[in-house]
Amino acid sequence: METYGSWVPVWAVACSLAASGMILASSRRPNLREFWTLSAAGVKFALILTLVPEALAHRVAEARLFAIAPGIDLTLRADPLGVFFALVSSALWIVTSCYSVGYMRGLSEHKQTRYFACFAVCLSSTVGIAFAANLLTFVIFYEMLTIATYPLVIHKETPEAVSAGRKYLAYTLTAGVVLLVATAWTYELTGTLEFRPGGFLGSETAPAATCVWLFVLFMSGAAVKSALMPLHGWLPTAMIAPTPVSALLHAVAVVKAGVFAVIRIVGFVFGPATLSALGLQTYLACLAGLTMILASVLAFHQDNLKRRLAYSTIGHLSYIVLGAALLTPASLAGSLLHLASHATMKITLFFCAGALHVQLHKEKISELDGVARQMPWTMGAFAVASLGLAGLPPLNGFVSKWYLGLGALQAAQPLAFALFLLAGLLSAGYFLPILYRAFCRAPQPEAEPSQTPHQEGDSGHDASAWITFPLLITAALSLILGLFPNLLFHFWSLAHLVSDSILNGGSP
Amino acid sequence: MIGEHFPVLIPVSLLVGAVVSVPLGLWRGSLSRLVALLATGFSVVAAGVGLRHVLRAGEMRYSLGGWPPPIGIEYVADPLALFVVLVVTGVGFAVTVYSKRSLERESPQNHVPFNAVALLFLAGLSGMVMTGDLFNLYVFLEIASLAAYALVAAGEKRAPVAAFRYLVLGTVGASCYLLGVGFLYLATGSLNMADVRAILPLLPHYRLPFIALCLMVIGLGLKMALFPLHVWLPDAYTYASSVGSAYLAPVGTKVAAYALMRVWFGVFGPVAYALPIGAMLVVASVAGILVGSIMAMAQNDLKRMLAYSSVAQVGYIGLGIGLASPLGFIGAVLHILNHAVMKATLFLVSGALAYRFGTTSILPMDDRLRRAMPWTSAAFAVAALSMIGLPPTAGFFSKWYLALACLKAESWPLVAVIALSSLLNAVYFFRVLERMYLRKASAEEGIPGPPASNPGEAPPSMLIPILILGLGVLLIGLANAWIVEKVIKLAIPSGL
Amino acid sequence: MSLSEFLAGYGAYYLIIGLILIGIGGLLLKSNYFKKAISLTILQSAIILFYVMSATKRDATVPVIDAGLGAIQPEQYINPLPHTLMLTAIVVSVATSGVAIALLMLVYRRFGTLEEGELLERMR
Inter-chain contact B423–A176, Cβ cutoff 8 Å? Predict the structure, then answer.
């Protein structure tokens, strides 16, 4: 990988920071404000897109900003893994922004300026996390993400929202402090914090016991955001936030930043050699496997749609972690692909949940009888996405599951293979009842007449275009990327590039 | 000509300002404030220019009255001293700008003597920093302390009692320090810091210097509010006026900590590292960090909460000193800067709240605060995030260096304490932030209405220092590597 | 050992320690704030006496040049430096006492008592 100097990563991070300032300044003119959000999203995506061909050609754009601590620079580097994550998040930000516009206006939500401004800062931090070239830069952006998402979680400002925010902060701030300690320890041991494909922490630099403790610390820090059990508790509680926020939290920014952290630590800090030598991958795999199954089982019990989706997310995140822990070419590629495919599918599901809330004010699965007749496009997208999460071809969920399964067989871990299959079946198990209710049952009679006179039109059709188009786009994306995984974004090539670099220690 | 006398310039100008402001103020009230602004402004500029000069040209030594050391009193302008003086005068200038409106509201008839006493306080502190003589340190220590007692006393009703208790404890501390200086003099025959440092290793046995060091540590520890000698601090900071605590809190304890560093590293040096005093400093600091944070969580008054928080923050500095390593030193010195700026912001905000709403109690706070004073609340939020230790604000980097120092010293409990204290800080700061931003105003309870004219943002003379200090918290964080490389690393004492 | 021998040796320092203990004891044991202020003065005076005492030398006279003693030789005069330092310390002590008494007058005017227990009661 040769590196070349470029400001593009910096602009990609900075454009939404600048936009958030403009958003705060245009609070009185909602259309101007939304313009800033959408244009920043577009600019960011375009900038990152330009980095893709370079990354594929083994050329990495690097921007070394300034020293943030003696010996450590604030550096942004667009390596394949970073570009992958940044692509996913920035592309999905565009659709989330459109969706947010429709959602917030549809519900006449308060504090929209704060919402959009915080969103912009969140995305800035996410791209910063993606492009961070060393652990300290990473931790800085990681904590920025925590703080930027807090106002989004407590958006509704009800007592439940505030206490959910407190729980969120308690989990994430603790994780941040643990990460800080782990980073400081690594710096003290090795004198460097730069991410290196194949890892830089190993038996030459530190005794085995230290490595194990460091791994535990790092994983605890990353496990909160990636919702590994038992540190997953904040996620279902955070469902109190408005749906676009949940879509962001669960598809784009926070949780994917968590699993991204896991992949970075596994692949670029410790490396496959160290991990397998110390047997640490087994522990990680066990934890991930357990989370996968347990979360899927817990999902069955949830009647609130968003909560079921939350537990489904917890389960699917563990697919990614398990794939990373298996440390084979296919499993690493599969885990990255699943990062992208789960993002598109889950965001579709959350968009649908939000559409149901806006149009029909329905939040519980038990209320969803016959909804498909009222909102056909929405439930169609829901069906596509949920089948994809269950692993049905030709959706992108199938592609990533295929590689994950292949990876499990490559690693000679039939148990992992079985777990993937089982979790897929469970996913089908908790999604199919929803589809059944929506499509096959007759709609329930309205218990009381509609009490919201300001809703335009009758509630018997899909939500406004701002809401419905984004979810159709993401559902279509899941389908297209399932058929042609390398289309447009070269996800497939990037994923394989990353897994190569991790397993072969950086030499292309 | 001025350049030769530079090291004494800052204390002298502040002293002259203090003396001149009284008759001028009695003649025309506004003149005293003008003199204060001029004196502090001049000092900041002088400190900045001096720092730049010293970084390039090396340290400057000045003999008072022309008498050469070690007989005469010497002033030393080295990078560390000028760095701390810059912090002291910078914060002093910001608070002086801020003080006009706040004093008008809280103690209108006192503002002339108040300005004079504040100038005396800053003069004492800058003298403490610049001096190179142990007894001269005592003299300026007492100047600063007496002025501090007066600053505390000019507060609310209960302030004189708090001031008296501060006086008693402060004088005991200063007397301990004086006794320590006496022992050191008996052992070495000199009062000049550099001279004593040269003589100490030649002594046959260290019993006398050891006692001296213990006494000086206790004395300076009392002044810097090291646990368990911190008991004067909560009452003093709470009952002082807003401006009074804004002068005292950011810089008072820090300069005492700096003096401790000078004595510990500069005078005793390697002789001291072998002694178990470092370990005791660390233990006391850790206790201070934990007790301060826990007590802060229990407070219902914003100023008292910030006072206990100061006890905890001084613990960080003590930890850095006690570890006696280069990284610990860097962490402690950087935290002097960071905490001064953060605490100044926080106390200035609490003063602005008192100005607009008449109270600093946390319980009735609700989001009327944020709606009336958005910029002030934003500055508070930035400073609070920095105290918690979130990047990229300044507080994160102090913790980074201290964590590295603890790891190098292979002490896991210390690292855990640093991590735990961040979380404890988060608890009590988010309590205030939640109320400020999220708690809905209700008619019955809630902050009593504004006492005077318009409810609204703080007046510009108060708002601008708050905003500049708040912005400074962020900028110092981003520039911390530059500060460490260019200034602090030069000051690391030899033998660490 | 006679009194003068005791005092000429380290005995004087034991007396100083006694004074310091009286001062600190008064601070801790007395509940009247004025008595605390007095104890503070005693403490400071003890330290001043300590310095002065440390300046003495055997068979030496006050540090004023005496023409009758011939050429100036250091062992004939006691050390003047601690005396000059203590001049400053006395000034500090006086200033501290002044501030303390002023504060106590203010406290008395506001609360009507200087007894610690009652004062804390009235402060609530």
Answer: no
Counting Cβ atoms within 10 Å, is residue B374 exposed (0-12), middle (13-18) or buried (19+)? exposed
Query: 């950087």: which residue's tokens?
Result: B334
**Domain residue ranges of chain A, discontinuous segments joined by +:** 2-445+456-503
Positive/negative CA dihedral, B167, B172, B173, B175: positive
Please indicate whether, in this complex, the C-beta atoms of A67 and B481 are within 8 angstroms of each other. Answer: yes
CB contact at 8 A, A258 and A227: yes
Handedness of CA A121, A124, A130, A131 (dihedral sign): negative
Q: Mutate which of B338, B382, B386, B396 to disrupt the A interface (most A C-beta within 10 Å)?
A: B396
CA nearest neighbour of B65 among B75, B76, B77: B75
Residues 415-434 of B with CB under 8 A from A: 415, 419, 422-423, 426, 430, 434
pLDDT score of B446: 54
How many Cβ atoms are within 10 Å of A455's Cβ, its own excluded? 15
Distance CA A147, CA B474 (A): 15
Which residues lie across from A63 on neighbouring strands? A76
| Chain C residues 66-105 with a CB less than 8 Å from chain B | 81-82, 85, 88-89, 92, 95-96, 99-100, 103-104
- pTM value? 0.90
* Total length of chain C: 124
Query: Quick check: ipTM above 0.90?
Result: yes
Report the candidate in A404, A406, A388, A386 with the shortest Cα–Cα distance to residue A396. A388
Quickly state the pLDDT bin for A453 (edges 50, 70, 90): very low
**Dist CA A224 CA A146 (whole Å):** 11
Number of H helices, E strands in chain B: 21, 2
DSSP category for residue A412: T
Torsion of CA B169, B172, B174, B180, to 10 degrees: -140
Rounded to the nearest 10 degrees, the angle between the axes of helix A376-390 and helix A329-360 is 160
Neighbours of chain C (3+ CB pairs under 8 A): B
Domain boundaries, given as residue ranges, for chain C: 3-64+74-123
Please give the average pLDDT of every successive group of 10 residues along chain B, which has 496 residues.
Answer: 76 93 87 91 92 86 82 88 93 92 82 91 95 93 95 89 94 95 91 90 86 93 92 93 92 94 87 80 94 93 94 94 89 93 94 85 80 88 93 90 91 91 92 84 55 66 91 91 84 75
Architecture of domain C3-64+74-123: Orthogonal Bundle (1.10)
Domain ranges of chain B: 276-496
Distance separating alpha carbons of residues B383 and B14, to the nearest angstrom: 29
